[in-house]
Amino acid sequence: MSILTKLNSEMVKSEITDSIKKISIESNCDTIILGLSGGIDSSVVAYLLKEALPSEKIHTYHLSSSTTPKEDTEHARLIAKKFNLNYEEIAIDDILNKYLNDISQEAIDLDNNKNLKITIGNLKARIRMTILYYFANLKNGLVAGTGNRSELLIGYMTKFGDGACDFELIGDIYKSQLKDLAKSWNIPNEVIDKAPQAGLWNNQTDEEEIGMTYDILDQVLYLIEDKKLKNDEILNKIDISLSEINMIRNRIKNNRHKTQIPPSPFADRK
Predict the structure, then answer these.
(1) How many domains does the chain have?
(2) Label partner for 249 (CA 20 to 30 A): which of 29, 104, 155, 192?
(3) At what angle do helices 175-184 and 9-27 cross, to 10 degrees?
(4) What is the DSSP string of 14-39?
């Protein structure tokens, strides 16, 4: 059983939709742009946008590549149809290959296979970001983020890729809490129950890459960040090893730069 606080779905929806309306009015934007991956995070954001704004103000884009799971594309279409959203599919492989073909082979060969795989995956995320912001500029819009609290805390995103947005609607909600909310908000079960995956390379899954399930990760993050517990106190609360706790602490520390304003030498003097 999770130790996380159970959220009131109606209260959370009311607070987030009020925030969306306020952002839309204060920015004087005409549209909200959303990258609709077919996963639970972007599906929930699509739902919340639909609850707050007229459908014609929401434009969604499924930016697929050769490593995008087929079910993700099917689920993106399902969500767009279910919520009556403007929806467009754009394949990014030609853009990606143009980048890679124009980079010298010498530069690529300096990387080992693991680094190259991650680097290309990050490039895909940044290509998607530039496309979303192209449409945001074109349509006088803002880009809605899809990062949840679990991912943001450990930096599980591409800097200036899927981490780039104008506002984060679910940034204060842990992944496991989001699953419960999604059920209350009538997100299809096939979207909620599938293994989270970014589709940046073949057979990639979030939990395998992170090194533990979201259920365990969220509980550790909650105890570290919300409860400010020390390691020995965490060990008494949940079944986890000291090395796993320290791994999470290091990820929080090492990836904090991904969600902060870039530092300047004299920032502390202000």
Answers:
(1) 2
(2) 192
(3) 100
(4) HHHHHHHHHHHHHHT-SEEEEE--SS
Amino acid in position 24: S
Q: Is the dihedral of CA 44, 49, 30, 258 positive or negative?
A: negative
CB atoms within 10 A of CB 229: 17
Residue 1 lies in a domain: no
pLDDT in tens, the chain (270 residues): 678 989 999 999 999 999 999 999 999 999 999 999 999 999 999 999 999 999 999 999 999 999 999 999 999 999 999 999 999 999 999 999 999 888 766 555 545 566 788 888 999 999 999 999 999 999 999 999 999 999 999 999 999 999 999 999 999 999 999 999 999 999 999 999 998 777 677 777 878 888 899 999 999 999 999 999 999 999 999 999 999 999 999 999 999 999 988 888 876 665
Burial of 173 (0-12, 13-18, 19+ CB in 10 A): buried
| Residue 227 vs residues 24, 133, 221, 230, 254: alpha-carbon distances, Å | 34, 37, 9, 9, 20
Same domain, 53 and 115: yes
CB-based contact 47:185 (threshold 8 Å): yes
Q: What is the CATH number of the domain that holds 86?
A: 3.40.50.620
Structural domain boundaries, residue 253: 211-258
